[in-house]
């Protein structure tokens, strides 16, 4: 075996040290279970129709917290992530809205779509200073 | 005897699939992405692999939160194309090689890998975009495919070391299949990308290129010990997909000969990386 | 800190469940089967485990041929009871311990076991019959349960060695859970039985008893190297279920102290075997 | 690692040496795929009703060979095993018929139900002579 971390607590603790990032750990997976399963349901065309016809009625069918429902209805994806959402599941929501990954992901950065797109074309966000909160690097 | 003749690494960005499907590969934004695959298409037309083992991850398409296999191997005769929200991609269905797939599945379990065997599954962009990049838009894919789906969504994904070991075991399994087959292993996903939160859009071209160097020159002692946290810190939260490249790399043996390399930023939110590698040793089964 | 305080091995024959459910445990055919569990019921009432990790196999109940996980771990809050063809057994639903289950699942994957995580599942007689044998017919089960489902139906099942290693890894994972919990591991299935073909009805009491001896006295070097073919030849095609006992045994550390033993032939087509073991070392995490 | 067999061919070949036994290998799993999935469908009460009402019509909905269908209709479980069936799947068929495992399993041995039951009560079938075809033990 290599000298890898076997201690799950130490392994998981490191993830909280990354700025502006929520790693989809068991804690988040459990919190967001039904939000993610709700989002997954939008892979079916008939469910997309029902969702588009009445978002509130459709989301009320799922055992999600009111906070989770509101975050989805608001398309506040950072809030969704905070409440246990995973981006690959949430993608079903923004795809149903007709948004691409580029458009939807940009909304989480606080940048305008134009600025985000321009940053990507210029080579993307630098890792400088956003690697570690603790080590300020 | 079946043999692994080459390994291919490539990003599997969904926007690349949409661009191909919509006939927009010539647009200025996209042309440099695809230019790096021109050589690869010619090469693979000459190589004519019989079977490609495609290591990829499902992106909440075929699997949801009810069941999360760490390593799943497709043993079916065919795989449908997922509807990821805009209808299925207009690409041919994927034809499996059930004989070889079951042989590998059985061999891996005997070799103490805790595989999940899958007999019915649709495949998403993680598997079909690499096929499109390498083969363009044929009526039918010119290879049979064995999907190996790796969990890189819910933490922890498998360690880099475990991925490498799985690659080695796949090589042993292929080498013990009696039929004469030209087999490639593809590792997909990556490179730098983060699709979530205020740090979204992160790209680390320096780290990516060092990884491409190591994939081409290192015997694995460095590659397989890169911890998950390093992928996340350095290449963004979705950069973790690169552990899947290690399965391909492990299947090629200790040393490889790089044939082709391509790197471009950006495609959508992501850095595109692509490698073609040959096993440097006479037989990859001697690992 | 959570600790593994004991291991239980027991057959999980469906007819035993039906006999309990129909109130026929006192019939002459059945009385000697259940007599061997009287001590166990008293013992467990005093032990009061908080959580039981039940290693069992699904018998084409929750899983069909579409997906076959080698090792699956249930991380849900609750599990329904399968309808195996006569309606679900009239037993309480099974309550999970999601905190510990997810902790173990994450730890095992980090420890390079390729687990499949399950969040929604019904459980069949493989899991519920042992609960009935140990706890009788309560209103609610007095323990929380973590199901670990092992494929022993489609070949190859995991090797005995791999099962033992999984047990060792479960012990490490439990030992690193911060809450103070009394945890037992149960290995279920077996002993001799063959449910198919002209050789059906095979029972090898001698081999079974040697296996019970080894489970009680051996440090694992013999047990973990028994090849699958030996289970099949000596104890019938379904005797392979005994590899699941090795997961329990591996979790107890190198040496154990046997507390209780029971063997009876027959129950339906099968030999009934049952053991209660204590880890002999102070801490099973020192494996 | 222990000195275990890593060669799958040698591993599988040994199974053919066990008298009166079909081990559910990939070869059998593939051959019997739809027979087993058909049997599994009988776990649902509504399917059991349809099956009981017209067995032939119900089984014709499944992509099974005629041999497989006939073996199931005949309740010839040895033949079902030869054609790729697995006993845990086939159990759904005999459970629907109201047979226990003891009753159904006995039918494969060529013994009468009484004789099979008596053999089990007397300690079961001895392994002597049915361990290995090759080694005659
Ligand atoms: Fe991806
Ligand atoms: Fe069983």
TrEMBL record, chains A, D:
Full protein name: Protocatechuate 4,5-dioxygenase alpha chain
The GO molecular function terms of this record are: protocatechuate 4,5-dioxygenase activity
Transmembrane ranges, per UniProt, are none
Q: Which UniProt keywords apply?
A: Dioxygenase, Oxidoreductase
Q: Which Gene3D superfamilies does this one have? A: Dioxygenase LigAB, LigA subunit
Show the SUPFAM superfamilies listed in the entry: LigA subunit of an aromatic-ring-opening dioxygenase LigAB
Entry's EC annotation? 1.13.11.8
The chain positions of domain Extradiol ring-cleavage dioxygenase LigAB LigA subunit read 35-120
InterPro entries, alphabetically?
LigA_sf (IPR036622), PCA_LigA (IPR014159), Xdiol_dOase_LigA (IPR011986)
From TrEMBL, chains B, C:
Q: Quote the InterPro entries the UniProt record gives.
A: Xdiol_dOase_suB
Domain Extradiol ring-cleavage dioxygenase class III enzyme subunit B per the UniProt entry, residue ranges:
9-272
* Recorded GO MF terms: ferrous iron binding; protocatechuate 4,5-dioxygenase activity
Per UniProt, the keywords (alphabetical) are: Dioxygenase, Oxidoreductase
Could you tell me which species this protein originates from? Answer: Sphingobium subterraneum
Provide the taxonomic classification. Bacteria, Pseudomonadati, Pseudomonadota, Alphaproteobacteria, Sphingomonadales
User: Which superkingdom?
Assistant: Bacteria
In short, the EC number is 1.13.11.8
Task: Return the protein name.
Answer: Protocatechuate 4,5-dioxygenase beta chain
């Amino acid at each position: 075996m290599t000298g890898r971390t076997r201690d799950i607590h130490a392994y998981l603790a490191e993830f909280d040290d990354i700025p502006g990032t929520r790693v989809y750990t068991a804690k988040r997976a459990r919190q967001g279970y039904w939000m993610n399963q709700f989002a997954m349901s939008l892979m079916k065309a008939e469910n997309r129709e029902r969702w588009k016809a009445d978002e509130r009625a459709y989301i009320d069918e799922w055992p999600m917290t009111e906070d989770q429902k509101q975050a989805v209805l608001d398309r506040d994806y950072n809030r969704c992530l905070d409440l246990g959402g995973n981006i690959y599941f949430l993608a079903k929501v923004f795809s149903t809205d007709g948004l691409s990954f580029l458009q939807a992901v940009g909304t989480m950065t606080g940048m305008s779509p134009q600025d985000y797109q321009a940053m990507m074309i210029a080579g993307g966000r630098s890792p400088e200073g956003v690697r570690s909160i603790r080590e300020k690097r | 005897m079946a043999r692994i003749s080459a390994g291919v690494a490539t990003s599997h960005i969904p926007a690349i699939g949409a661009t191909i499907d919509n006939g927009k590969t010539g647009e200025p934004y996209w042309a440099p992405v695809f230019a790096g695959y021109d050589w690869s298409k010619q090469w693979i037309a000459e190589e004519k692999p019989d079977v490609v083992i495609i290591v990829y991850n499902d992106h909440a398409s075929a699997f949801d939160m009810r069941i999360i296999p760490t390593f799943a191997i497709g043993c079916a005769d065919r795989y449908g194309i997922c509807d990821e929200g805009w209808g299925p991609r207009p690409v041919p269905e994927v034809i499996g090689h059930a004989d070889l797939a079951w042989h590998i599945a059985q061999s891996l379990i005997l070799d103490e890998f805790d595989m999940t065997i899958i007999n019915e599954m649709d495949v998403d962009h993680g598997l079909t975009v690499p096929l499109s990049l390498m083969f363009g838009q044929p009526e039918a894919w010119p290879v049979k495919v064995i999907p190996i789906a790796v969990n890189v969504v819910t933490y922890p994904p498998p360690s880099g070391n475990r991925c490498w070991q799985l690659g080695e075991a796949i090589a042993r399994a292929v080498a013990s299949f009696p039929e004469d087959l030209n087999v490639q292993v593809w590792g997909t996903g990556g490179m730098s990308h983060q699709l979530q939160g205020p740090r979204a859009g992160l790209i680390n071209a320096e780290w990516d290129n060092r990884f491409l160097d190591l994939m081409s020159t290192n015997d694995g002692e460095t590659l397989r010990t890169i911890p998950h946290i390093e992928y996340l810190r350095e290449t963004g939260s979705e950069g973790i997909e690169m552990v899947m490249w290690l399965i391909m790399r492990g299947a090629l043996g200790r040393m490889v000969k790089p044939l082709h390399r391509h790197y471009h930023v950006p495609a959508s939110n992501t850095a595109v990386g692509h490698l073609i590698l040959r096993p440097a040793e006479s037989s990859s089964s001697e690992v």
